[in-house]
Amino acid sequence: MPRATVSWSAWASGLAFFLAGLFPLFNADAYGHLAQGRQIVALGRVPQVDLFSFWQPTPQPWKNYEWAYDGVTWLVYDHLGANALILLKCLALGALGYLLVRLSDRLARGVELAAPLTLTALLLALPVARFRFTTRPQIVGLLLPAVLLVGIAALYEKRVSSRRKAWILAGLGLLHVAWVNAHGSHLFGVAITLIFVAFSLRTSALRWMIGLLFLQVAATGCTPFGFSIATDAISHVLRPEYRELVVEWAAWSPKDPLR
Predict the structure, then answer these.
(1) Looking at the whole model, is its pTM more than 0.85?
(2) At residue 221, does pLDDT exceed 90?
(3) How many domains does the chain have?
């Protein structure tokens, strides 16, 4: 396929995703994360208890597995305002849209129409997916899996030199450190790697995939709470109180497409 077709398809997808995120900062959970970030900045550390415990008479021990997102977004909000935060979200979404088309073209190995067909599918899905594009840590969980898959594709590529693969591997390791401290979906990243470890058993990519898995496991411990940050991420999702409070976890409703 002509490179120009792939390029404009990727940029068009990026623009569509960027525009899909252009709506006000209105979500209650988004402001909850900002409050957590404000507390982290004010204390100068990550607290070991949840001072916003709504269902308990006293603050409960809690490992904020999204503390890095909370702190960074509060600083942006505090110094530059809500619009800057929305712009950052839209840029992340734009990068996601761009990477998805590029990744599909790479996986299809340049098969004709792979990029425009991916663009078409994404455009059809955007109206339904848009209500998930609130300014919350889940944006990290949308973008970083795409970055991880692009990196894994490079590790599988025989034409990529070992030196470059080593740099890519190091970058993916650092990426996972950020991911672990920003959103609980880092567990999904490990699951993706495990799948590709299995796929690579009889290929030259096996050593790179095992190396990536090792770095991801090590990165999981690079937090203020050590490895226990992963267990809290799981227990948080399983609590019914949170499932009822965080509207993005509920089913889509035509009455409120942005939720």
Answers:
(1) yes
(2) yes
(3) 1
